[in-house]
């Protein structure tokens, strides 16, 4: 056992999968990105393309699952047109360029959030609001310090002068898009502004502080597990034919939807306890090691 760089905990030994080698009839694999598929330097594991080719040849759907924008996820796999992705922490699922499921927010909540964040920014918070749509993320703040923090996670961004105007155009169908998530980015520390803005909707919506600088708001019940279930239904796959890999709390619902559930060795203790198996760490290509064993022995 060693100390996990991600969570400061001892890592358990990976599960012995020899009894299942070559006997697992997988048809769907849901994989978290940060801390799971990507190593600590945000790099893909070696020979990932070869593994994805093998999964394709066997008719197994590989679905990255992340809080990133759908277009950002697709851009991360440029040689995989039509790839299946679970984006915005489950708020939208796409397969072969077609939407499988999505969970838009009501416009009243979006409009109230715009006003609340504007008031906090006017009062001095170094922050801004993103309207995370299916097609684009819409931002009112256009300066480089802000956009440089947005760009890694949102590859399709529209800089607008008035987010209320965007909402009005969505309502009139002048803009063919829906807001599926609200995100506040504070360049200093997000908790103070989050509690005064998106946090006010926590009783009716799903609110989360998702890092030092980010907070999110979605429909209640939207998560990776719900998205994975929608994907299973769309392609006719059961939990017994599904594997899922994750490392943190926002992966728990996805693991619960798969009989072949794997916590990474570097995962939070709660995830390790919830999962059926433990995979080697994200820095050891744990996802690849497990899938190659299950497929080929």
TrEMBL record:
InterPro entries: Cof, HAD-like_sf, HAD-SF_hydro_IIB, HAD_sf. Gene3D superfamilies: 3.30.1240.10, HAD superfamily/HAD-like. It comes from the Bacteria. One of its GO terms (cellular component) is cytosol. Pfam families: Hydrolase_3. SUPFAM superfamilies: HAD-like. Keywords: Hydrolase. GO terms for molecular function: magnesium ion binding; phosphatase activity. The keyword Repeat does not apply. This is IIB family HAD hydrolase.
């Amino acid at each position: 056992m060693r100390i996990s760089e991600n969570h400061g905990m001892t890592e358990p030994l990976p599960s012995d999968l020899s009894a299942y080698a070559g006997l697992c009839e997988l048809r769907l694999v849901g994989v978290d990105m940060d801390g799971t598929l990507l190593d600590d330097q945000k790099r893909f594991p070696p020979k990932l393309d070869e593994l994805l080719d093998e999964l394709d040849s066997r008719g197994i759907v590989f679905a990255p699952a992340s809080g990133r924008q759908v277009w950002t996820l697709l851009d991360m796999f440029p040689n995989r047109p039509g790839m299946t992705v679970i984006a915005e922490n489950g708020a939208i699922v796409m397969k072969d360029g077609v939407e499988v499921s999505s969970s838009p927010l009501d416009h009243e909540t979006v409009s109230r959030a715009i006003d609340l964040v504007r008031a906090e920014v006017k009062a001095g918070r170094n922050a801004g609001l993103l309207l995370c749509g299916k097609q684009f993320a819409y931002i009112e703040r256009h300066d480089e310090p802000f956009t440089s923090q947005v760009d890694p996670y949102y590859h399709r961004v529209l800089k607008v002068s008035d987010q209320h105007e965007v909402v009005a155009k969505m309502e009139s169908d002048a803009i063919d898009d829906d807001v599926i998530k609200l995100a506040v980015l504070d360049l200093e520390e997000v908790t103070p502004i989050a509690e005064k803005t998106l946090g006010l909707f926590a009783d009716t919506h799903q609110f989360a502080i998702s890092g030092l600088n980010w907070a999110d708001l979605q429909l209640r019940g939207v998560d990776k597990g719900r998205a994975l279930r929608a994907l299973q239904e769309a392609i006719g796959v059961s939990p017994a034919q599904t594997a899922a890999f994750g490392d943190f709390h926002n992966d728990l619902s996805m693991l619960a939807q798969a009989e072949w559930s794997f916590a990474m060795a570097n995962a939070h203790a709660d995830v390790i306890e919830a999962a059926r198996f433990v995979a080697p760490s994200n820095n050891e290509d744990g996802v690849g090691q497990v899938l190659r064993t299950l497929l080929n022995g």
